[in-house]
Structures are given as C-alpha cells and as structure tokens.
Amino acid sequence: MTTAPEVIAETLENNTQSQRGMRLRFLSYNIQVGIETRAAHHYFLHSWKHIFPHAARFQNLDNVAEQIEGFDIVGLQEVDAGSMRSNHINLTEYLAKRADFPFWHHRINRKLGKFAQHSSGMLFRLRPSELVVHKLPGLIPGRGVCMARFGNQNESLAVFNIHLSLSRGARIKQLGFIAELSQDYDHVVLMGDLNTSPNSPEMKHLFRNTSLIEPLDAFHTFPSWQPSVHFDHILVSSELKVHEAKVLNHSYSDHLPISMEIEIPDSVQIV
Questions:
Q1: For residue 59, what are the domain limits?
Q2: Radius of gyration of the chain from its Cα atoms, rounded to whole angstroms
Q3: Does a structural domain hold residue 157?
Q4: Does residue 87 lie in a domain region?
Q5: Rounded distance, CA 163 to CA 114, Å?
Q6: Is 256 exposed, middle or buried (0-12, 13-18, 19+ CB in 10 A)?
Q7: 35 and 50 Cβ atoms separated by less than 8 Å
Q8: Could you give the number of structural domains in the chain?
Q9: Taking a C-beta distance cutoff of 8 angstroms, is the pair 163, 77 a contact?
Q10: pLDDT in tens, 85-108
Q11: Distance CA 209, CA 189 (A)
C-alpha cells in the first residue's frame, strides 16, 4: 500500500538549477536511538536508555551530526519521532538541523505511546521530486520503506531507506516486495539495516530478481566494537558507477555507518 509521506520539512531555500552528471555521497546509519554502545555488557547496563531520557543521548547525537554533515543523502534507522525517552524531540529533525540538512523526512514504524515512537528517517541536501512511503509485509505490522525520487518522470534516481525484520520469513517477503518496487525506476540505491548478510537466501533472491549489486564483499558493521557481521548495506543498480564505498569507524551506536560516493548519470536531471 502506498501512502503520502508523513513528514517532509524544508529549512533552507531550494536551488532550482538543474544539475547533471554529479556525484552524491550516501550514508546509511542505524543510530540505536542515540545510545552509545561500546561493549556487549552495555546492552544490559544501558537498557534503561531505551525507555527513559538521559543527557548523554544528545551529546552522542551531536557527535553523529558532525559525522554526517559531509554527506548528501543519509538514511537513518532506529530513530525516535518524539517520545519520553527522546525528551519529546524528533531525532530525525534534530540531526537535520544540527548537520544543516535543508530537507528531511521521517516515518513512524511503531507507536508505543509516550514511551517510544520507533522511526526511520532520511536527510537530503537536494530536494526530492517525489517521496512515497510503502508498508512492508510481515507478521508484526509497522515496518515500511521510504522512497525518495530525484529527476523527472522520464529518467530518475530512486533512493530506498529500509530496516528489515529479524525474522527470515518476513525478510523474504519484504525483499520480494522491494524487488517489485525497484522495477519501476531507472536507477536505484537501496540502503539500510537489512538484518541479514549478502549471502543469505533472501539477499540472493533479491540479486537474482533485480539489477542491484553490493559494491563491497564485506561491510562488517555489527557490533560496532568488534564488527564481524554484514547487516548494513548500500546496494546500487549495476549501471551506477561507484567511486568509493567503505565502513566508517564511528562508534556512536551498536552499528557502524557505511558510506558510498556514486556518480549519477547525465540523463538524470536533479534539481
């Protein structure tokens, strides 16, 4: 099901001049609601931070903002849209303002009243020409995918931000749904916490049914203090030229962020 975007905010004037053949810097980051985690025992010691507010959350988020300000498009997972634990502050908006992003969008995946507003978010230096939110299939409702499109109807770049389920059965359905969505766009970037590795059956199915590829064999991003698992991804259409792809060593969450610089084809006119 397609729904209208929940929020898109603009804080700066838009540059209306069309640009071609540009390079864009992408970042995907599961920020764990601003909780700094540097060891396994922190999951127990810091568990209360998932429910209650604490001053260190925003000190940590300010560090995150410093790391993301050099990017053009950022996909965020495990954000809060404004509840007791985040001092009723929308964390996507907070990071957008701290890192001077003119455009931002968030989607609430699961509402737990005043205690938590589980969300995902996207930050943009350039104004998307379209924003669409889709609900993802799964036994537990709430997860979704946001698509931001850049360019015109004739040829465009579609950027998807997702956070998939822990259940393999749900992930198979969710990636199958995303594979169908991606067929509608000329050039695709898919980023997020997929909770699975590139060699899993569900990922192999995605690769077989789309033109998406993983530019690096090993994006070890989890856990951040001893990364050994490849859960976080930036996938691109095979015709897109990738100039740089790497994991960043910024331990402000239990995940490490991944970055990629991608050359956008001349045929895609980005405003």
A1: 2-263
A2: 17
A3: yes
A4: yes
A5: 22
A6: buried
A7: yes
A8: 1
A9: yes
A10: 999 999 999 999 999 999 999 998
A11: 15
